[in-house]
Design goal:
mainly alpha, 268 residues, 2 strands
Length: 268
């Protein structure tokens, strides 16, 4: 068995747990969806941070410019960056996927103040920990972002690529397919931008980007068994963080739904 196939086998139980997570079926109203989005937007943002870290690691992004690393790997990451940072939105305009997501949140009526405060504070003082704390970011989202930045700060491109590939690009299509089936029917007119965002990820990540990311990880790990073992451990940890993120959303939804359910006092 090839190393990449062994890694896929090892992470499959976690992958299936995410794809079949109970949070998707708990999203019953537009208010439920907005809660989901207010958690998920942090993963959309730190995805871009992980992506740009890989570009910085694998290409020359400073001046003076020098050829850096493998030209094949440079091509792979630059191709992904172009699609994620400057894709076409629902109106035919160039946007990053994060900007598309913010617009989808606005259309659905989701509160964007928390993610906005987080980014504003982070830009001001540069401290991820302080920004997460001061913006009152939910713990599940905060832990998710902290793990992503632990991988970013590892300075190990093979770990960053593995988490990017198997915790994000290769995972996203199956994860979103679990959500999208009933969204249009349940929330007509409120989520056209969110539906487009999901469909765009399914189309792009399920085909072109996931293949590029797989090749990038294979190139970076090469024939080094230690790299593949580290990549497997880091990927499993990233998938566990995703499960905890979805658990956090699910628990919040259950709490809100229970609070809004009328109490039957007929037999009180």
């Amino acid at each position: 068995m090839q190393p990449i196939d062994r890694l896929k086998t090892a992470i499959e139980p976690f992958r299936q747990e995410i794809i079949n997570h109970k949070v998707y079926s708990a999203i019953k109203t537009i208010d439920d969806l907005t809660i989901f989005m207010q958690y998920h937007v942090y993963a959309v943002w730190d995805f871009m941070s992980l992506l740009k870290t890989l570009q910085n690691q694998l290409t020359c992004t400073s001046v003076p410019w020098y050829p850096t690393g493998s030209a094949n790997t440079r091509y792979l990451i630059n191709e992904i960056v172009a699609g994620e940072e400057s894709d076409i939105d629902l109106m035919g305009e160039r946007k990053s996927h994060f900007e598309m997501y913010l617009e989808a949140m606005e259309q659905a009526g989701a509160d964007r103040s928390q993610i906005g405060n987080f980014l504003s504070i982070l830009q001001q003082n540069g401290s991820l920990e302080q920004a997460l704390l001061a913006s009152d970011t939910p713990k599940a989202a905060s832990d998710f972002v902290k793990y992503t930045f632990a991988i970013i700060n590892s300075q190990k491109a093979h770990l960053q690529s593995a988490v990017f590939t198997f915790g994000r690009e290769d995972l996203i299509p199956g994860m979103f397919l679990s959500m999208i089936q009933d969204l249009n029917m349940n929330f007509p007119g409120n989520i056209s931008r969110f539906t487009y965002y999901l469909e765009r990820h399914i189309e792009v990540d399920g085909d072109h980007h996931s293949h590029l990311a797989l090749q990038m990880t294979a190139n970076l790990c090469g024939d080094k068994d230690a790299f593949w073992q580290e990549a497997e451990q880091a990927t499993i940890a990233s998938l566990q963080q995703r499960i905890r993120l979805w658990d956090g959303v699910y628990e919040t939804l259950l709490t809100r739904q229970a609070a809004s359910t009328p109490v039957d006092t007929a037999f009180a």
